């Protein structure tokens, strides 16, 4: 497989074999057109390697392989417990390769290695194990009607599932989607984001080793507008699960309409974090920091709009500034003490910088950051963690998703005002509330228009708990038992027992 893989040495000295092909039917192949995409290291802006990019013809082949696998007794009729064991072995094998996978993730994406290893990879493994456990616990119901009718439901897989994943958590978003789809017996064509094509290819190599039948999991790289669009509009695909921007989500929904595909969309957000006078301020500061600065601020559910009650506003702003300056160390993602690496691409870096300009221009108060961070060898897409205060609701930086280490802070007077301003957005993904008053905490949780509310924390998501949004933040849920709904049909079986009639 000489021209379908290359030997690489990562910046941390890890040597490994990087696949560069398309993974179709348990084999590496080139793209029909020969087209490639080049992966860039966001830390030094150098090219890492080029990999094959799928076009419509390759998508056709992958979908055909997935369709064949869906009908193949080797997969379709596999005992559910066996399916779970296969998934568990997959998780275990990933665990054995976690250092290499985390290395690739950091190299290609820019996230700190400690985060890639101890958080992303740990969650990949636990998510697959969690869903492995569900494989033999998904079943239908018997429904009582009359003595003359037996009725029951069967939970069936949907069929061929297209999964389009983003670049902020390449492996983890793959695990969130593979887990529930596999344990319910679907087959998959997964497309990684063109910004971060590498780690998923290394993962693909493990699929055959685990023993998944050919065609059950197919993995493609390729551009969204080509490979992604071909998948979303493919007549042979039964479902599209997408994580990414709201704009792209709308496009995908339109394309999926061609054959009324089942869809799950997890899109953008501008999630509010409400801090009341009666909160534990140290906790609020700590979680406000995690809520927006973690993963370079590239988190769809990041709590990027902080609303603080006027009694603690000044105190919060100065404590938050201090905490960010001591905790958010920007640097080489392979260095142990780095909290924040580079933004994933030049485009994202420029996007964040343009919002910084907008905040300055619109007259918000710059508390810290507000510029590129140039101390990491003078290269790379680094941004100084940026806080704007005194931000008005009409400002662009209050309304639009920035997707970077960039947060806006504003003050409020009453609970009613806080809720109405928190909800004054087209998004509804995450939200957080800080108060020591339990009645208020739960009342606010009910009144916030969001798929998720964190009380006295932010973004400590968990694979056992549903994740997803309302309004323009998405459709459907991932994770938890709710995640299974997105990958099964309920078939109703009516049995006539009315022989006396
Ligand atoms: P971003 O704008 O942050 O890069 P996107 O939502 O565009 O995020 O990308 C998320 C995923 O969606 C990626 O895998 C990307 O290739 C894919 N994608 C982008 N545009 C399209 C499209 N028009 N059709 C299908 N997939 C797309
Ligand atoms: Mg890259």
TrEMBL record:
Domain Aldehyde dehydrogenase: 28-493
EC numbers, comma separated: 1.2.1.3
CDD domains: ALDH_ALD2-YMR170C
Positions in coiled-coil regions: none
UniProt KW Oxidoreductase keyword: yes
Xref: InterPro entries: Ald_DH/histidinol_DH, Ald_DH_C, Ald_DH_CS_GLU, Ald_DH_N, Aldehyde_DH_dom
Gene Ontology BP term (one): polyamine catabolic process
PROSITE patterns with a match to the protein in the record: ALDEHYDE_DEHYDR_GLU (PS00687)
UniProt entry keywords in alphabetical sequence: NAD, Oxidoreductase
Any one GO MF annotation of this record: aldehyde dehydrogenase (NAD+) activity
Domain of life: Eukaryota
Active site per the UniProt annotation: 266
Family: Belongs to the aldehyde dehydrogenase family.
Name under which the protein is recorded: aldehyde dehydrogenase (NAD(+))
Species of the source: Mytilinidion resinicola
């Amino acid at each position: 497989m000489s021209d379908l893989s290359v030997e690489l040495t990562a910046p941390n000295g890890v040597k490994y074999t990087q696949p560069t092909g398309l993974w179709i039917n348990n084999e590496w192949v080139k793209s029909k057109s020969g087209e490639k995409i080049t992966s860039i290291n966001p830390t030094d802006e150098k090219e890492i390697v080029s990999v094959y990019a799928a076009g419509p013809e390759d998508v056709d082949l992958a979908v055909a392989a997935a369709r064949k696998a869906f009908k193949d007794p080797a997969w379709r009729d596999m005992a559910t417990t066996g399916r779970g064991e296969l998934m568990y072995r997959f998780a275990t094998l990933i665990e054995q390769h976690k250092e290499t996978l985390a290395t690739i993730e950091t190299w290609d994406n820019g996230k700190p290695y400690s985060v890639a290893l101890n958080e992303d990879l740990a969650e990949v493994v636990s998510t697959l194990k969690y869903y492995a456990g569900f494989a033999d616990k998904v079943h239908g119901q018997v429904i009582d009607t009359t003595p003359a009718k037996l009725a029951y439901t069967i939970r069936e897989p949907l069929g061929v599932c297209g999964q389009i994943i983003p670049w902020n958590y390449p492996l983890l978003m793959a695990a969130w989607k593979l887990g529930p789809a596999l344990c319910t017996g679907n087959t998959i064509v997964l497309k990684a984001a063109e910004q971060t094509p590498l780690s998923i290819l290394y993962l693909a190599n493990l699929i055959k080793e685990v023993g998944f039948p050919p065609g059950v999991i197919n993995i493609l790289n390729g551009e969204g507008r080509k490979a992604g669009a071909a998948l979303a509009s493919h007549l042979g695909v039964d479902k599209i699960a997408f994580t990414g921007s709201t704009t792209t989500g709308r496009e995908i929904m339109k394309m999926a309409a061609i054959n009324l595909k089942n869809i799950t969309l997890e899109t953008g957000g501008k999630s509010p974090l409400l801090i009341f006078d009666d909160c534990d301020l140290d906790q609020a500061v700590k979680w406000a920091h995690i809520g927006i600065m973690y993963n370079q601020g590239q988190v769809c559910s990041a709590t990027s709009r902080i609303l603080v009650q006027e009694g603690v506003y000044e105190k919060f702003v100065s404590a938050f500034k201090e905490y960010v300056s001591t905790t958010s160390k920007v640097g080489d993602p392979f260095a142990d003490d780095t909290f924040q690496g580079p933004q994933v691409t030049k485009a994202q870096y420029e996007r964040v910088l343009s919002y910084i300009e907008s905040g300055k221009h619109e007259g918000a108060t710059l508390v810290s950051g507000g510029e590129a961070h140039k101390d990491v060898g003078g290269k790379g897409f680094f941004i100084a963690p940026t806080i704007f205060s005194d931000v008005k609701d009409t400002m662009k930086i209050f309304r639009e998703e920035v997707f970077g280490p960039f947060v806006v802070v504003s003050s409020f007077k009453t609970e009613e005002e806080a809720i109405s301003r928190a909800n004054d957005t087209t998004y509804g993904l995450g939200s957080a509330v800080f108060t020591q008053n339990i009645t208020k905490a739960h009342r606010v949780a009910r009144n916030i228009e969001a798929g998720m509310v964190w009380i006295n924390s932010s973004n400590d998501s968990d694979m056992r708990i549903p994740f997803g949004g309302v309004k323009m933040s998405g459709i459907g849920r991932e994770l938890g038992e709710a995640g299974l709904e997105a990958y099964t049909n309920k078939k109703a079986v009516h049995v006539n027992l009315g022989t006396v009639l």
